[in-house]
Amino acid sequence: MMKNNYMRTIHFLCEDKKVTHPIVQKIEQALEINIPYIEPQDLMLALQTSKHRILMIDHHDYSRLNNQIRDLPLANKTFENIVINVQCRLTTDEILNFGHLKGLFYENDSVEVISKGCSEIINGQNWLPRKVAAQLLFHYRNMVETQSAPVTVDLTTREIHILRSLMTGASNSQIAEDQFISEFTVKSHLYQIFKKLCVKNRVQAAAWARQHLLS
């Protein structure tokens, strides 16, 4: 495989790095590269030690992986993400959960197609189905058109904390536990946040937070 200055490394996010994944193994053979396996508990450390790391995730395992560690940082801009084995068309919100999505492959895609896409992604390109690209384009166009909230918004300290939790993908129950409040109170705060930011849902609120709140 030809390499250039945009070369990235793929790491396969899995529950047990001792278990070989057949598709990953075939991609390694096709591209003549090594794809290291990484477990969720190692991902937080990787945030501090590595840049330009591409995470490959089997969509069949995503829910279990996400439940193993709170605030799994898939949406962190440090990571570019590839999702394989997607069974059906995803909603826009589901796609946005993967943050910096570089590639998406369905379970009926051949190893040749996946390998070709991964090769392009490693070299700095995107490989997204047209429908997925259209969904994202529509979403971000809509955000530009509807985002009327100013950079400075009268948010309370509690609301800012909740916005930061939304950025990590935390659920209402997780936010309630972290903030020592009830889920009903969380919902009330979210209602006020959406109203202040002129957004319709938590995905749009999280996008606003990523753009306007300092880390």
UniProtKB/TrEMBL annotation:
KW Isomerase (keyword) present: no
Keywords: DNA-binding, Transcription, Transcription regulation
Coiled-coil stretches noted in the UniProt entry, renumbered to this chain: none
Alphabetical list of InterPro entries matching this protein: CsgD-like_REC, Sig_transdc_resp-reg_C-effctor, Tscrpt_reg_LuxR_C, WH-like_DNA-bd_sf
Domain HTH luxR-type intervals: 148-213
One family name in Pfam for this protein: VpsT-like_REC
CDD domains: LuxR_C_like
PANTHER family membership: DNA-BINDING TRANSCRIPTIONAL ACTIVATOR DEVR_DOSR
Protein name: LuxR family transcriptional regulator
Organism: Vibrio variabilis
